[in-house]
Amino acid sequence: MSSFYLSKPYQPPPAPKNLPISDPWALFGGISPERFMKECWQKKPLLVRGAIPAFSLASQNGSSCLASPISYEELVELSGSEDVESRLIQSQPWRFQQGPFQKKVIPSLKKSSWTLLLQGMEAHHQAAANILSWFRFIPDARLDDLMISIAGIGGGVGPHFDSYDVFLIQMSGRRKWRISEQKDLSLNPKLPLKILRNFQCAQEWVLEPGDMLYLPPHVAHDGVALDAGCQTWSVGFRSPSFKELLQEGLWRLAESLEDFPELEEKFADPKQAATKNAEQLPAELIKQLTAQVQKLKLHQIDAFLPGVAAYLSEPKQQAFFDGPAKPLNPKAFLNKLAQKHLKPSPQTRILSLGKSVYCNGDDVTKNQAPKIASAWNTLSAKKALKTSKLSPIYASSLYDAYLAGWLIFDQ
After folding, report:
1. DSSP strand E in 173-245: where?
2. For 162-186, what is each residue's pLDDT tens digit?
3. Which terminal CB of the chain, N or C, has fewer other CB atoms within 10 Å?
4. For residues 333 and 394, what is the distance between their CA atoms, to the nearest angstrom?
5. pTM of the prediction?
6. CB of 122 within 8 A of CB of 153?
7. What whole-number distance in Å separates Cα of residue 406 and Cα of residue 357?
8. 151 burial via Cβ count (<10 Å: 0-12, 13-18, 19+)
């Protein structure tokens, strides 16, 4: 058995509260996040050797090799949970199964040509959440999740492309990556997976633990595990279509009309004249609707953006929120808030639009007192809140979110 099976797990630290985005980072090969975004983001691939220096430092110091923070056994266990989106892909021939899985279904590390994929791991393991925090120089609205791939020798998902940006971090074992910026992205219709029909490799590398490869959207790539138990952690950034954003924004915009009771007034046309064109939509109706649209400013982006922000703050479909087993009463909640940090649950999504904060699809600052709105803004920006300045009256919406399991206290 390879030495990395017996090595101690790597413990990734959380990112500092204030990211030094203008300083050089090892994660990007000695360039700053600002420079990375300017030169590479959505423009070109970037290979970084030793992106996580701890792996190479452990080897240089003669220590045992570092292993992934999450073991094969833990990942197999997680794949059996209904709260985790998991997939099993096997080649020779290509086969695809959707989880949850019984343990006996997952191949052993001795088997070859299989891959287990687990989505949204930041919600299920602190190490994954910590690594995700490293990328908060990119807007939260773009973040999708952290996926973990564990594979037997030869395991992979075939040559394919993604419509989003992805950072591929090698966490255990080695994986060979082949990439191509080819224009032909047609798929093989005979396979159960989205595999490219004609993949033409232009560059290839073998990634060791601690290495990272960034790929912009639509760069064709194929990763094959070279070691049993190979783990790749993928940080993906969603890129919704304009159609998706418009549909979701318009739907929520329509729902918001409930906030305008004056719209319950019936259309009336006492000045309607006799017409010879009864089949035409009345000019008076068009005129009055135009006035209502202008009054509500529905033709302006500011009226539309709240629906988009609410949509992008919705949690993943598999997210499950469970309130505290022994909830604190409001007074005890405030006392603890003065001593411990309150933070979003790992499955909570929280975004801001100006001074409005959207948490799990809801505008949690709407009709709130300035103090509570300020508290929510701190939670959105810092992902943590600790204060002794709130009274029971002001803390109600925070307390409700705590009872719902959306917000939790640091242990």
Report:
1. 175-180, 203-207, 212-215, 220-225, 230-237
2. 999 999 999 999 999 999 999 999 9
3. C
4. 12
5. 0.90
6. no
7. 14
8. buried
